[in-house]
Amino acid sequence: MSRPVFHSGFADEINQYLDYKIASGYTEKSYCSVLKSFDVFCCQREIYNVRFNRSDADAWVEKKENEATTSHYARVNKVKSFLEYLSLKGYDVYLMHDVFFKATDFQPHIYTDDEIQRYFHAVDTYHSSRNLMEDAQLPVLFRLLYCCGTRINETLGIKKSDVDLTNGIIRLTEVKNGCERYIVLGQEMNQLMKRYADKTFYLLGDGDYIFVSFDDRRRQGRRIYDIHRRILKEAGIPFLGDGNGPRLHDWRHTFAVRSFKQMVDSGMDMYVALPILSTYLGHKTIYATERYVRLTMSLYPYIEERFSQCFSEVFGKETVYDQTD
Which residue from 63, 90, 103, 291 has the highest number of Cβ atoms inside 10 Å of its Cβ? Predict the structure, then answer.
């Protein structure tokens, strides 16, 4: 993408900050829109040198009418990181407090062994007259969600050049928190990806998406969600609706819970398992992974008995989440 032109007193520093974030592995587009909005905000407040006081901060932090919580979170906290960068460079700027997500009592759906078996039988026998490519795509796409814990948009954003079949590694670039990461495929998953590549990759350029619609465009999450609903029905898994799922995103929750349990059952200490899982999921801190530990402990009481004391020492009894999943 082409970088926008900045006009406020922060213009030069914003460009340098974007260069710094890109060099650190973040994608430019994940910061550009927020920093352009901040630049416009500063111009409106006639800030034409590098200054930012408490009054400016209070105005920026204020939640806009009809602004989604996730948008508010990204807008405030990404600019806070920029101001911290300026402070380290010696500028006298007011540092805002983080915007937090409050913990909720929402419980994601964790698929059972029987549901997993029925779901993927329905996936593997699915046939589309609309897009014949779906017969080959869906077994790979849905298994990436479950076996690797990827988000749906991360999965749909995979390009041919991102896939290393030799080493069984996929690079994710369209990520939620702006920093690219890699996922490692298990042996069976890598074999499935190789078979899919044999059928489809010869048609693709390096910059093409590996999951495309019938008109060769990047697949959209809405269509995959509609297919997910059909598969649930075919598999005999009740759809509860009203955000209670089972949702596509619940495959990520299921992956996280099962992965943490597997590491614990293998004898790994919680202090070792938690940062591994957090990094693999692309969380910025282990505190964003806390919900999965809580879920695992609630589903498997023997894990709670083993780690409840350690868990309390790390997280306390109540925690606010500093990012969404």
Answer: 291
**Measured CA angle at 44 (ends 40, 47), to 5 deg:** 90
* Cα(4)–Cα(224) distance, integer angstroms: 33
For residues 140 and 282, the model is more confident at: 140
- Residues 90-102: what's their mean pLDDT? 77
Each residue of 172-191: pLDDT tens digit? 988 876 778 899 999 999 99
DSSP assignment letter at 321: B
The torsion angle over the Cα atoms of residues 102, 107, 111 and 115, rounded to 10 degrees, is -150
> CA-CA distance, 132 to 155, in Å (whole number)?
20
Rounded distance between C-alpha atoms, residue 188 and residue 121, angstroms? 16
Question: 320 pLDDT exceeds 50?
Answer: no
DSSP string covering 73-125: HHHHHHHHHHHHHHHHTT--BPPPPPP-BPP---------HHHHHHHHHHHHT
Question: What is the length of the chain?
Answer: 325
Using only C-alpha atoms, the chain has a radius of gyration, in whole angstroms, of 22
What is the pLDDT, as a whole number, of residue 313? 62
- Are the CB atoms for 285 and 67 separated by under 8 Å? no
311 falls in which pLDDT band (50, 70, 90)? low
CA-CA-CA-CA dihedral for 204, 210, 213, 216, to nearest 10: -20
Helix (H, G, I), strand (E, B) or coil at 170: strand
In angstroms, rounded to a whole number, what is the distance separating the alpha carbons of residues 24 and 259?
Answer: 28
pTM equals 0.69
The pLDDT mean for the chain works out to 86
The helix/strand count (H/E) of the chain reads as 13, 3
Could you tell me the strand order of the sheet in which 181-184 lies? 163-164, 169-172, 181-184
